[in-house]
Design brief:
The protein is of the alpha/beta class. The protein has 9 helices and 9 strands. The longest helix is centred in the last third of the chain and has 20 residues. The chain binds phosphoric acid mono(formamide)ester. Phosphoric acid mono(formamide)ester binds next to helix 2.
Amino acid sequence: MSLKGKHLIDPNDFTLEELDEIFDLSEKIIKDKEAYNSICNGKILGALFYEPSTRTRLSFESAMLRMGGRVLGFSDATHSSVAKGESVADTIRVLSSYADIVVMRHPKEGAPRLASQYANVPIINGGDGGHQHPTQTLADLLTIRVLKGSIEGNKIAFCGDLKFGRTVHSLIKTLSRYSGNKFILVSPNELRLPKYLKNMLIKNGNIDIYETEDLESVIEEIDILYMTRIQKERFFNEADYVRLKDSYILTRNKLNNAKSDMIVMHPLPRVNEISYDLDEDERAVYFTQARFGIYTRMALMSLLLGVI
Ligand code: CP
């Protein structure tokens, strides 16, 4: 089994054994960071961000720098030849000779998949439109594995924008491959999980799904609460966003009836959906989750590059 040379476009691109390999290595890195600080000497990460990002771009950059490699790319495509009309295919053909591995975020669903068809180096999807965000899923699953002890057998509530939230799409898809998980989908009617994903879960069988608009009615039974931002940038009109943006605002008081070992996750950035007073509660783990993103990305890149 080797991940060397593979692309990561969709979380299902990797087997559960390959995902385990990434998590095992991430945990080793957490325990002994110094041991990995030169494994990517001479390697270059190309970071192509056609959409805004803080965590994904900077954690990829930090991960490569922490392993002794270097980084090039853009965080604003209007300052690249994209502004002159260059296609994703041509950009990637060129980047394949400038970098050893590429992470791409793009507003169009499928753009990283297209890029992978023209690349000679591993392509990593850093988020494509409202579709998938597989490396966020790696950070999410490592958080669950470390803090809950297992990726199996949890009752997970996803709350907020389940229609456009790509982190939810990738995480649900992946969690459904592990046994014993139960899903509670909490959203306004207009922001429910897309039918294609729900049908996929139902078709896979063995998945317990419950949908509701009322978070407080289920808060007592949840092991993991995965909050999400209402994705303003994916709405077709401002009025709908304004009407729905504050559908859920989680405060510390609202966790009074929650389990003492329940964890609250969020891919970040947050807007209003988690009150700042919750940050002091030990169940709030979203900053740990963001930190784990560095270690999973170190593990992922070193395995795709075959330097470990
Ligand atoms: N979680 C996440 O993707 O954050 P950024 O948009 O800041 O990269």
